[in-house]
């Protein structure tokens, strides 16, 4: 697989080509579609999976694999190897109509399926956008948008009608706590998908999709999200009491981080208990395994939780919280 990256064949200067995805596609760490797993039973966690990319996403194509089956691409927030059959090349002018459209329709549902050319179904995650062909809904109550398609290797645009309901919105949703909460709860109960596999979301994809629906782009890696937050509060060396006091000053929609995991803060209940919503893979139950050993259970869902569930075999989520991040400057202030 490393040889297939064809690193030795890269020229000193590489001409960037422009392409658009024509389907939901995977970005891989190596040019290989087959999964790599740590154990034979652990088939939900592919070590080569970087992230999933929506249809109609602009790509900067930088290189090809030796076998010509994959291209190394950059998206707006990730880079990796993508199957060449998942994209279509176009010129920069047309590419810019998708990279920076003046008028566009945003998918506000957690998962939006759209029929293209009558027989193809495309899946878009929350925050995806498509250029509008008309600035107002049609007489039949639909929006008219453009979708890139591949016709025998040639770029073409399909005109698609999308019902003007509450699963779409013209332009970004307004940035507000209420909208962040509404968008987050659209995912409740959804399947956890490592790097977007199985049409699911992992912890960072979940928070990135919610924030993108209000026009704010976050990285799709939990650690990079933590580093990207303009307001950051270090909680790592606090005891539980001080952590709870700090969390109580957060706003709904702020993010809480443990090592490698991100959660969205919801607020507190009538007893002052803080709650979060997050895409979780697993949790631990101390003493409930064989001979009193800790039991690891794979939840693999988007759930609402307090901070007292066991994230490790002997520590609660609260104990493992290291940071709070926000886009608001008043996050750490009282009131």
User: Which band does the percent of strand residues land in?
Assistant: 25-35%
- Give the overall average pLDDT: 94
Put simply, the count of helices is: 6
**Biggest β-sheet description:** 6 strands, antiparallel
Strands side by side in the biggest sheet: 15-22-16-17-18-21
Write out the CATH superfamily name of the largest domain: endopeptidase domain like (from Nostoc punctiforme)
Distance between the termini: 55 Å
- Uncertain spans: none
DSSP strand tally: 22
Helical proportion, percent range: 10-25%
The rough form would be described as globular
Radius of gyration: 21 Å
| Number of separate domains | 3
Explained architecture:
- The protein has 335 residues and is an alpha+beta fold.
- A six-stranded antiparallel β-sheet has the order 15-22-16-17-18-21. A five-stranded antiparallel β-sheet has the order 6-5-4-1-7. Strands 11-8-14 form a three-stranded antiparallel β-sheet, with no helix packed on it.
- 36% of the residues are buried.
- The protein folds into three domains: 3-98, SH3 type barrels (Roll), CATH 2.30.30; 101-170, Roll (SH3 type barrels), CATH 2.30.30; 177-326, Alpha-Beta Complex (endopeptidase fold (from Nostoc punctiforme)).
- It has helices spanning 92-99, 177-185, 203-212, 222-228, 240-247, 317-320; strands at residues 17-21, 25-28, 49-53, 58-64, 70-74, 79-83, 87-90, 104-107, 111-116, 120-125, 129-131, 142-151, 154-163, 168-170, 231-234, 255-258, 261-268, 274-280, 283-285, 295-297, 301-305, 323-326.
């Amino acid at each position: 697989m490393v040889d297939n990256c064809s690193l030795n064949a890269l020229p000193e200067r590489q001409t960037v080509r422009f392409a658009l995805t024509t389907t939901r596609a995977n970005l891989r760490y190596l040019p290989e579609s087959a999964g790599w797993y740590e154990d034979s039973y652990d088939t939900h966690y592919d070590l080569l999976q970087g992230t999933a990319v929506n249809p109609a996403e602009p790509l900067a194509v930088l290189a090809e694999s030796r076998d010509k089956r994959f291209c190394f691409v950059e998206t707006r927030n990730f880079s990796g190897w993508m199957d060449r059959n998942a994209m279509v090349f176009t010129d920069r002018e047309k590419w810019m109509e998708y990279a920076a459209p003046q008028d566009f329709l945003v998918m506000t549902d957690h998962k939006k399926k759209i029929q293209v050319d009558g027989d193809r179904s495309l899946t878009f995650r929350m925050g995806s956008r498509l250029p509008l062909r008309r600035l107002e809904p049609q007489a039949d109550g639909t929006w008219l948008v453009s979708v890139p398609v591949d016709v025998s290797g040639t770029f073409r645009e399909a005109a698609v009608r999308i019902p003007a309901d509450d699963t779409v919105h013209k332009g970004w949703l307004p940035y507000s706590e209420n909208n962040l909460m509404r968008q987050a709860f659209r995912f409740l109960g959804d399947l956890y998908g490592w790097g977007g596999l199985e049409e699911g979301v992992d912890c960072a994809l979940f928070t990135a999709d919610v924030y993108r629906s209000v026009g704010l782009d976050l990285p799709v890696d939990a650690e990079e999200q933590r580093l990207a937050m303009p307001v950051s509060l270090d909680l790592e060396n606090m005891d539980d009491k001080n952590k709870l006091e700090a969390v109580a000053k957060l706003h709904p929609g702020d993010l809480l981080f443990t090592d490698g995991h991100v959660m969205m803060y919801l607020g507190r209940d009538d007893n002052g208990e803080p709650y979060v919503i997050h895409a979780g893979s697993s949790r631990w139950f101390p003493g409930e395994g064989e001979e009193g050993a800790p039991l690891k259970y794979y939840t693999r869902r988007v759930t609402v939780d307090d901070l007292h569930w066991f994230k490790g075999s002997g520590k609660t989520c609260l104990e493992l919280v290291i940071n709070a991040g926000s886009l608001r400057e008043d996050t750490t202030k009282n009131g």
